[in-house]
Design brief:
The chain has about 350 residues and is α+β, with helices and mostly antiparallel strands. It has 2 domains: about 100 residues, 2-Layer Sandwich (Phosphorylase Kinase, domain 1); about 240 residues, Aminoglycoside 3'-phosphotransferase, Chain: A, domain 2, CATH 3.90.1200. Helices cover about 45% and strands about 15% of the residues. The strands form 3 sheets. A 5-stranded antiparallel sheet has the order 1-2-3-5-4. A hairpin with a 7-residue loop joins strand 1 and strand 2. Bound molecules: 2-acetamido-2-deoxy-1-O-phosphono-alpha-D-glucopyranose and magnesium ion (MG). Magnesium ion binds next to loops.
Length: about 350
C-alpha cells in the first residue's frame, strides 16, 4: 500500500525525510497511523496519525482535552509518562494541512502493545496503568474537558442507533443477523440497569478506549509503562474503562475471532485485571461504584456488540472489514463473551469481593 501524507509534515516537525523509513501500522479501527523508523537506529522513532474526521468531527477538542490533562499532570506529577502529541513549529499539538488533521507522537522505545494477553501479570500491569491515569487526574475538574465524540458511551443512544438501523436495514440482513438481533433484545436489561445507575455515578476523567492494544508494557519485563490513544480522554464513568479491560483482557482471543468456542473467560486474568485496577483506584471509587465492577464488563461488552451489529446492519461504514460479514461475526463474538460473563457471574462476584477485601 502506498504511504501518503503531506510533505509539509517534515518541516513542521523539523525532521529530515532522508533519515526515515515509513511503515503503515495495522492496528486501530479509526485513525490512519504511519510509523517513522529511524534508518540510523533501525527502530520506530515517531508515530504519525491522521485523525478520522468522520468519527472526530472536532479534532481540536481532543487537542484541548489532552493539553489540559498534560498541564495538570506536569504540575502535579512531573515524573508521569503522558504520551501527548509533539508540538509543531508553531507550538501546536495538532497540524491542520489542507483541511486534514495530523499529529506526531513520540514512540516509546523498548515497549510492546498486545492484541491478546498471555499472562495474568500483564493484565494486572495494564489495568494498573489505566487506573493510575484516572487516579492522577482525579482532582482535575472533569467539566473542563469536553466530549470528543457526543454520546460516545451513552448506552441508551447506542441502543436507539441499533433500533433505527434494524428498522431501516434490508430483510436479507435482518435474516442473516437474526441470532445477534435476538441477543441484542435479550440483553437490553443491561440498558435498564445503566439508566438507573448513571444518575448516581460521578463523572470522572476517563480514557474510554482501554482495550489492551492501547497500553504499552516493557518488552522484556512486561511491566506497565504508559497508556496511549488519548482521543477519548474526556468526562465519563469508571465503568467505561474497567469494562473495556474486561472485554479485551479476559479472553485468549480477540473481537475478530470467528471460532466462538475459543471464547472463554480466564478467571486468573479477571482477578488480575480487577486487582490491577483497584491497586490504583480503590481509594478513589465510592462504595456504589465498587458494587458495579462486574456491571462494567456487561455494559461495555453489550455496547460493543450493539455497535458492531449496528454497523453491520448499516452497511459497515464505521468499522473497517476484511470480509463481508466481519462486523456480524464481531457482534456474535462479543455476545458470546457477554453470555459467559453472565454464566460465571457468581464466581466472578466472589473474586471481586476477595479483591475488595
Ligand atoms: C475503536 O481507536 P480504536 O480502533 O482503538 C473504537 C472503540 C472500540 C474499538 C473496538 C473512536 O477503537 O470505541 O471499542 O474500536 N473507537 C472509536 O475495537 O470509536
Ligand atoms: Mg481509539
Amino acid at each position: 500500500m502506498e504511504i501518503n501524507f503531506p510533505g509539509q509534515i517534515w518541516s513542521l516537525y523539523n525532521l529530515n525525510p532522508a533519515d526515515f523509513k515509513l511503515e503503515i501500522a495495522s492496528s486501530g479501527h479509526i485513525n490512519q497511523t504511519i510509523l517513522l523508523l529511524s534508518k540510523e537506529q533501525d527502530h520506530v522513532s515517531f508515530v504519525l496519525q491522521r485523525i478520522n474526521q468522520t468519527v472526530f468531527t472536532h479534532p481540536e477538542v481532543i487537542s484541548k482535552n489532552v493539553k489540559l490533562a498534560q498541564k495538570f499532570l506536569q504540575e502535579q506529577d512531573p515524573e508521569y509518562l503522558f504520551i501527548a502529541p509533539l508540538l509543531n513549529r508553531d507550538g501546536e499539538n495538532l497540524s491542520i494541512i489542507a483541511g486534514e488533521y495530523w499529529r506526531l507522537l513520540p514512540f516509546v522505545p523498548k515497549t510492546k502493545a498486545f492484541d491478546v494477553l498471555t499472562e495474568p501479570d500483564q493484565a494486572y500491569e495494564a489495568a494498573k496503568q489505566f487506573g493510575k491515569m484516572s487516579r492522577l487526574l482525579k482532582d482535575l475538574d472533569s467539566s473542563l474537558l469536553e466530549p470528543s465524540i457526543a454520546g460516545f458511551h451513552d448506552l441508551e443512544w447506542r441502543k436507539q442507533q441499533f433500533d433505527q438501523a434494524l428498522n431501516q436495514t434490508s430483510p436479507a440482513l435482518q435474516t442473516s443477523a437474526a441470532t445477534a438481533i435476538a441477543m441484542a433484545h435479550e440483553f437490553a436489561v443491561i440498558l435498564e440497569e445503566f439508566n438507573v445507575i448513571k444518575a448516581v455515578l460521578p463523572l470522572r476523567i476517563m480514557h474510554h478506549d482501554t482495550k489492551i492494544s492501547n497500553v504499552l508494557l516493557d518488552e522484556e519485563s512486561f511491566k506497565g509503562v504508559c497508556v496511549i490513544d488519548l482521543d477519548t480522554l474526556m468526562p465519563g464513568y469508571f465503568i467505561s474503562d474497567l469494562g473495556d479491560m474486561m472485554r479485551t483482557y479476559l479472553c485468549a482471543v480477540d473481537e475478530n475471532e470467528t471460532d466462538l468456542s475459543k471464547i472463554r473467560i480466564r478467571e486468573d486474568f479477571f482477578d488480575a485485571t480487577v486487582k490491577g485496577y483497584l491497586s490504583e483506584m480503590a481509594s478513589v471509587l465510592n462504595p456504589q461504584e465498587k458494587e458495579l465492577i462486574l456491571f462494567s464488563g456487561k455494559y461495555i461488552i453489550y455496547m460493543q456488540a450493539l455497535r458492531f451489529l449496528t454497523d453491520y446492519l448499516q452497511g459497515n461504514t464505521y468499522y473497517p472489514i476484511q470480509y463481508p460479514n466481519q462486523n456480524l461475526v464481531r457482534a456474535l463474538n462479543q455476545f458470546q463473551l457477554l453470555n459467559l460473563l453472565f454464566q460465571n457471574e457468581r464466581k466472578l462476584e466472589e473474586l471481586i469481593q476477595e479483591c475488595l477485601n
